[in-house]
Amino acid sequence: MTEAVLHPPHPQTGLWSWLTTVDHKRIGLLYGWSAFLFMLVGGLEALAMRTQLIVPNNTFLQADTFNAMFTLHGTTMIFLFVMPMNAAFFNFIVPLQIGARDVAFPRLNAFSYWIFLAGGLLLNSSFVVGALPAVGWFAYANLTSNAYSGLGTEFWVLGVQLLGLASLVAAINFIATIFNMRAPGMTPMRMPLFTWITLITNFLLLLALPVITVALVQVMFDRHFGTSFFDPNGGGSVMLWQHLFWVFGHPEVYILILPPMGMVSEILPTMSRKPLFGFSSMVYASAAIGFLGFTVWAHHMFTTGLGTWTTALFSGATMLIAIPTGVKIFNWIFTIVGGRFRINTASMFAVGFLALFTIGGLSGIMHASPPIDGHHQDSYFVVAHFHYVLFGGSVFGIFGGLYYWFPKVFGRMLSERIGRVHFWLVFVGMNLTFFPMHFLGVDGMPRRIYTYPTGMGWDTWNFWITIGAYLTGIGILAFMYNVWSSLRSGEKAPADPWDGRTLEWSIASPPPVYNFAKLPQVEARDDFWHKKYETKTFRPEPEHADVHVPNPSPWPLATGVGVGLMASGLVVSYVHMAAGMAVIAIGVAIVLLGAFFWSFEPFEM
Amino acid sequence: MSQAAHTEHHTSLGVDSRKLGMWILIASECLLFASLIVTYLIYSRKGLSGPHPQEILNIPVTTISTFVLLMSSFSIVLALAAIQRGDRKGFEKWILTTALGGLTFLGFQVFEFTEFVQHGLGLTTNVFGSSFFLLTGTHGTHVAVGVLWLLALYFTSRNGGLVKDAALKVDTMALYWHFVDVIWIVIFTVVYLFVYV
User: What is the pTM of this model?
Assistant: First the structure.
């Protein structure tokens, strides 16, 4: 029986309702739209590079600008596209999957979004000022010292610091939510795999981000205050940056790939009409990948003279990760085998993920061998590897997730017809772009060069790679058209368009603001499927119910603005100390006021 | 089971989400301090010039400040016990004691830092100085945030506002305070005692 409590509804329209929202579904949408827009920015940065490289000795971009493009492309795609897009799914889907009405800390949730936006705007404001970071997305010392780089690097250092903070705060939220807000009866092994993977990924964020936080503070101190953390002239070590960065950076790549793996782990069982094969082993394998991810960082440093034992141990640990990864790939394959597989755009992206991620994993396992890596390092072979796992892996998984959950989020189906066009353009384009990069690497083409001479044997491949990049871009345009036309006039989506297995499909599309009128009493894994077909006790929810939801709040936004000002003030102080200090002071004041009002605001879950 | 919002929420683990959130934050803070401590361990004896640790670190004085900080962990336990049995006056006495202990510790830090600068060790003097000040400065900032929070609890109680979930809020704060204390024990060992290793 639902005990309804009458509450006046909060305004659901208008800019202010979005700025003060604490609803996980709206925050998920904010992350999703922002991530998509930043993806377009990162895509243009890629196309700029590929246009420069389409022919040898090209003059489309100068060297400095090219360096800025690969710096911004990498940083944007990682921190402003894949991570926030994953966060969009964590936000919208996980509370629904665990039968909750919101996350553990709704205002903190909004706060993470505003910090993320501040970081993305700060990084890209480098375009407005005309000082682009050009130190690579990994910002190796001592290229980042004042001797070798200027204002542009400030935008990178402080921008990434903000972005890291956003994800760290969000991690606390998602871990607490998954631990503490599950519906009655949802024991851990009854949680959907996407929720499990969200938990593991957020533990990785929680433990990896502090390390880069420290490294970024240290490089900021070097640049602003004259310390020598990474300056050999002052007794520091450039190697320390590499270690600290990669202790974060390696778990980071698992942070990028695990959530799309989670999405695929939902799509394939649903479309195969069969439970996920080897559910427990999937949980353990994902946890093992997360844990082992912290033990392999120096495989990014095989060519730095670490010493024989160190190199060998990291090589062994890296190869070890192939085992749980292989378990997962076989489990996905065995999910499909023996089921009645439905082919649609979501499942095509999921199967595409399997093939392309495997290819990326194979090139990865090759450079787990240090002698081989000696040849791969800094060549296009590595570029091929990580784009197969990041684009073929993460991005394909994400596209699958978008086609799968779009009906739930928007109440409309995406067009299958346009979806096929999107899929094939992106599949062909991606492979045309990245497969030949293996050959370029083997033929000796280094990374991060803004041009190349003719006669190296690289001309033809570079030409076709650029064609592939443009083809991919057209595929993205097809996706955008699909979204636009489906939102306007797409087929209305029922609550359960795919005959789903998990709880998010048991409520309306889009869900009501309170998610569940009556919190489910969970009896099994894939509880919705269980109640539809095994106990046959599923009853659709009433259309409306009066359920209290937390009130909106302006304090997350205000405090977020304050933090953004503090970071921006640090950038300003690099060129004008007094003005910068003033901006920082204003930021601190706003943070203190915002935190004060936040603490004492009446707020009920 | 009422779905309306009220103070006691059912949680899957049986612990309040705010306290759980503090534990989770502490996990990430462990990694933050681990990175700073590792940097210190690498750099403490690598200063291109002096002063070096054995020349400048003053164990006797730091032992006093360490003792004060550790005792403040005891006083916050007394504060928590007081609020749990509804003794508001007792709570206010002990939470203020804790805040004063934290402030005393910070006072000692300020004294030590100024002494070091006067004896030629600043933030940029050498990598020992840089890593020492960044590590202890970060810890000191955490203590300062804690002191502000303790004083906020004190004044809220004085104004009659600490009613809802009072024990939980103090418990959550105490968890943070104990963490800051434990980190100091690690720092004291690594920075001051390891000079003799």
Answer: 0.96
